């Protein structure tokens, strides 16, 4: 039989609160009301009369001690209950949430520290995944039987041909906007012709590859994560390992190779479309004939401008493919996990593309390119 819990203030020693009965989950409602209703003052807790104690009762005991300002280490307990109380006391919610009593600036610093640590760990995981991918590629690619040409061509079609119309359209519109904004400023100085310089250099060096990479980061990285994540949640990847095949060879390398091939090609189309947008604005708004536009472009364009854009394309392709595949492998067994990892893949890949592009711009500027 379970004994009802009770708590009384000692008549002889008015500063000692004595607790007894069974402090268990079955009496949780009664205990909670009794603890909340206790309003007298006490400086010591004697819980040695408690017969049975579980985690719920220990939590309420700590709540009572916290309200009275009594150190939990001074509570008198039976020896068999001491380990349980210490375990519950070490949990974050043992005293009603110690973090709530911390100053706001302390909680803010803790949140910032946790976010920085999580990002650092994610970078380490990404570097580890890059190493695993390179190791797998060095072992698998010298053997023609491991060249999954059908899968590579399929992903080339999905990531390249499927994205081509969107890349061309957006690059054309952004090129037109860049030329129009440049003309708005340069018209005051009578230097509308330099709009050609602005558009050409911007798209060959930065905008062409950056627009393409951001579009593929949102379109392709999410697709890779959703595809691999769905296979992970359905235990298809475990089945691949069971029959002796390597998921890195079957799932990661074809996607990586396809993106390495298609992103530079799409970048070239994006550059051409951006220059076309600048040409349309120059011819219709600035009255710059097409012949003059191409002549000025020929004078401005140097091989290094073109190479700066193309050099970054394979690097962006590696980042987008690896982030998308890695987040797919991190998917749990629920549909919610697929959605969370897909969102994370898009955010991470776009952020890394922009950060790497900024670092590359500074590097090329320092070396005089």
Structural account:
- The longest helix has about 40 residues, at about 195-235.
- The chain has two domains: about 5-100, Transcription Regulator spoIIAA (2-Layer Sandwich), CATH 3.30.750; about 125-365, no CATH class.
- The chain is elongated.
- A three-stranded mixed β-sheet has the order 1-2-3.
- Helix 1 links the parallel strand 2 and strand 3 (about 45-55).
- The protein has twelve helices and three strands, in the order ββαβααααααααααα.
- By secondary structure, the chain is mainly α.
- Low-pLDDT residue intervals, each spanning 5 or more residues: 95-100
Going across the biggest sheet, name each strand in turn: 1-2-3
Silhouette: elongated
Percent of sequence in beta strands? 5-15%
The Rg value, from CA coordinates, equals 33 Å
* Mean pLDDT figure: 85
Q: Which class of secondary structure composition applies to the elements?
A: mainly alpha
Number of strands: 3
Q: What percentage of residues falls in helices of 4 or more residues?
A: over 70%
SSE ordering: EEHEHHHHHHHHHHH
Tell me the domain tally. Answer: 2
Largest sheet: 3 strands, mixed
């Amino acid at each position: 039989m379970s004994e009802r819990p009770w708590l009384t203030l000692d008549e002889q020693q008015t500063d000692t609160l004595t607790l007894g009965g069974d402090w268990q989950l079955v009496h949780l409602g009664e205990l909670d009301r009794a603890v909340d209703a206790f309003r007298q003052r006490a400086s010591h807790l004697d819980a040695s009369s408690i017969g049975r104690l579980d985690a719920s009762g220990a939590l309420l005991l700590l709540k009572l001690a916290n309200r009275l300002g009594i150190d939990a280490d001074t509570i008198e307990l039976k020896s068999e209950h001491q380990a349980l109380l210490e375990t519950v006391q070490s949990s974050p919610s043992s005293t009603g949430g110690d973090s709530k009593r911390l100053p706001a600036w302390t909680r803010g610093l803790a949140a910032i520290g946790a976010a920085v640590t999580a990002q650092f760990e994610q970078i380490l995981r990404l570097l580890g995944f890059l190493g695993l991918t390179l190791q797998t590629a060095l072992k698998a690619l010298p053997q023609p039987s491991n060249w999954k040409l059908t899968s590579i061509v399929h992903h080339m079609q999905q990531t390249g041909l499927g994205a081509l119309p969107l890349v061309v359209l957006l690059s054309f519109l952004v090129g037109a906007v860049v030329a129009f904004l440049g003309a708005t400023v340069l018209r005051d100085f009578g230097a509308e012709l330099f709009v050609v310089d602005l558009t050409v250099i911007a798209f060959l060096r930065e905008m062409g590859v950056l627009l393409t990479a951001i579009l593929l980061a949102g379109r392709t990285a999410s697709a890779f994560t959703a595809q691999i994540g769905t296979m992970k949640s359905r235990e298809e990847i475990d089945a691949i390992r069971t029959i002796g095949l390597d998921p890195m060879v079957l799932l990661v390398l074809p996607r990586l190779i396809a993106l390495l091939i298609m992103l530079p090609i799409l970048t070239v189309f994006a550059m051409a479309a951006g220059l076309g947008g600048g040409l349309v604005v120059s011819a219709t708004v600035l009255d710059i004939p097409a012949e003059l536009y191409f002549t000025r472009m020929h004078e401005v364009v140097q091989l290094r401008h073109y190479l700066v854009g193309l050099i970054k394309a394979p690097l962006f392709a590696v980042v987008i493919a690896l982030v998308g595949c890695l987040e797919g492998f991190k998917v749990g067994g629920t549909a919610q996990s697929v959605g969370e990892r897909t969102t994370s893949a898009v955010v991470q890949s776009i952020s890394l593309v922009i950060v790497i592009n900024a670092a590359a711009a500074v590097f090329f500027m320092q070396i005089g390119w």
